[in-house]
Amino acid sequence: MADPKGFLNHGREVATSRPVEERVKDWNEVYVPGSLLPIISKQASRCMDCGIPFCHNGCPLGNLIPEWNDYAYREDWAAASERLHATNNFPEFTGRLCPAPCESACVLGINQPPVTIKNVEVSIIDKAWEDGNVAPQAPERLSGKTVAVIGSGPAGLAAAQQLTRAGHTVAVYERADRIGGLLRYGIPEFKMEKRHINRRIEQMRAEGTRFRTGVEIGRDIKATDLKKRYDAIVIAAGSTTARDLPVPGRELKGIYQAMEYLPLSNKVQEGDYVVSPISAEGKHVVVIGGGDTGADCVGTAHRQGAASVTQLEIMPRPNDERHPADQPWPTFPILYKVTSAHEEGGERIYSASTTHFEGDQDGNVQWLHLAEVEFVDGKLTQKPGTERKIPAQLVTLAMGFTGTDRVNGLVEQFGLELDERGNIARDADFQTNVPGVFVAGDAGRGQSLIVWAIAEGRSAARGVDRRLTGASDLPAPIRPTDRALTA
Predict the structure, then answer these.
(1) 334, 378 contact by CB (below 8 A)
(2) Pair 419, 425: CB distance under 8 Å
(3) Per-residue pLDDT for 113 more than 90?
(4) Is the CB of residue 174 less than 8 Å from the CB of residue 259?
(5) Is the pLDDT confidence value at 412 over 80?
(6) Is residue 204 within 8 Å of residue 409, measured between CB atoms?
């Protein structure tokens, strides 16, 4: 184990952020490069060797957290990287983007700040890349079987890499012009620079995975034709149907879904545009939705030079600390979070509901009318006399997603059955009602975290491998019915 007295001798320290006035002028990651390595061994030493590592229950990947904490404490970076990759294909993604339910389940977190598991993870993988310890793992022999993966987000990439390494010939189909799914175009550069995706793609290419961009299954290629071409198919198309806001004035210009707004700023960083076609520069911006996607819109608006940024959330403000009765350890609590984007400015309004939008004579949105809401008999109800309006020249809707895309015809062409929540139904092996067609990630689970997406991709890969070969040595960390550890 790590230092038996580590958690007694050292307090929690996290990555150092660059000054706000500096980072809002660029799109680089917000943390000071190299700031973690000098402190990370001491932080890893805080791991308690607690006997029953509840962090394993918090993370669906089954990460061997105490083991790689011990290696990081001893600065055996090669061994730490091996343990990290044993359960996670892309730890540099999760180490930057995951909200760390493992830390919420850390035993030390019962009465102290938990171990900085996420920071240890990203330190290990960044050191592994720096030291050349991340190499392609090409299969020793090919199976002669072919697999198509639809979607190149974390679930699709994880499934593709696992199946390629098992010896199958895998092609990944992505409707966008670049590989990565929401990792590429939904996550701003300041949260994860896209070089991390690019080098993983090169690793996968070297292993034998093939990539087809700009191809949408259901439109460019019929699902039935794809099924004839491949021995198995994995649908990892995500949950991309955004929840809308049907209030008067929604048709005004200047109101966009978050996934209409965010990808364009990423395309600027890719060199496709000089300036985003949807820019917040000089505008009063309102972000509707208090989650991570909303925070991404806030940070993007800051960097585009917004005159003001206001974020609305219909639910009450969460607690600052875990309430033992409502959100007991080791569940993942809903707490008040101050992300890097919130540190950069703006106003956050809770218990607020948009009643309607108001525009100018040219049809451009200018004002957002809202009212306070409260729970009455278990239902959110508008409080009389609380109506007011705030300036809104650019509005982004970041209220979550309701299911996989039904417009492109993929679901209907395959003849897929849906579950009661509108997701693609699957059996214990992640196989749909259509033999040979599997589903992984948000398309089958619904909107979820990146760790669940990767875990789904790995588990679905095992189901595919079993169908194609009769047996499989690939790991399956979760079942389709597994759910996050919540109260």
Answers:
(1) no
(2) yes
(3) yes
(4) no
(5) yes
(6) no
